[in-house]
Specification:
alpha/beta, Rossmann fold, 5 helices, 5 strands
Length: 160
């Protein structure tokens, strides 16, 4: 389980979607795993995700959900904007599985999650990766080498 101080997670629901419950439930589950969480709730615009995430010195990632199939194309566009503004943050999206695959979320985000447990696991892995990246980055800087430490991660609900 993650320890306090390993980083903050910003959660919310994509703009236009009024379903706050999934975000609130995920927030509680991540808090149980000892993550500091900022839950922006339903109908969250891109600039809110970005400004809050950028204000976190210890950001692990951003989680955004969409419950309505009709909003998935709009959510993909918003996820692309979040990714562009926060290229190093772990980006986890919760969305109906079939619709998410149809529009290509996997090209933009690190993880498309169909359940809260999978999303929590993705953030825990991102926290571990961030801690490893910091250690490697410090080693790289000390010997003068630059390394690209960000690796894109995508898994589906089966962990593949």
């Amino acid at each position: 389980m993650a320890e306090h101080g390993q980083g903050t997670i910003v959660l919310g629901v994509f703009a236009g979607d009024p379903h706050a419950l999934p975000s609130a439930l995920l927030s509680d589950l991540l808090s149980d795993r000892r993550f500091p969480v900022i839950d922006l709730g339903a109908n969250t615009p891109t600039d809110s995700f970005v400004s809050v995430a950028q204000s976190c010195d210890d950001l692990v990632g951003v989680g955004a959900g969409v419950a309505l199939d009709a909003l998935i194309p709009q959510a993909l566009a918003q996820a692309s904007e979040i990714r562009a503004a926060l290229p190093k943050a772990c980006l986890v999206v919760g969305a109906p599985a079939a619709a998410a695959r149809r529009v290509g979320f996997e090209q933009v985000v690190d993880t498309v999650s169909q359940d809260a447990g999978h999303a929590c696991d993705a953030f825990e892995q991102a926290a571990l990766d961030t801690a490893s990246d910091v250690s490697l980055s410090e080693s790289s800087q000390s010997d003068g080498r630059l390394r690209c430490l960000r690796a894109t991660r995508f898994t589906d609900s089966r962990g593949i």
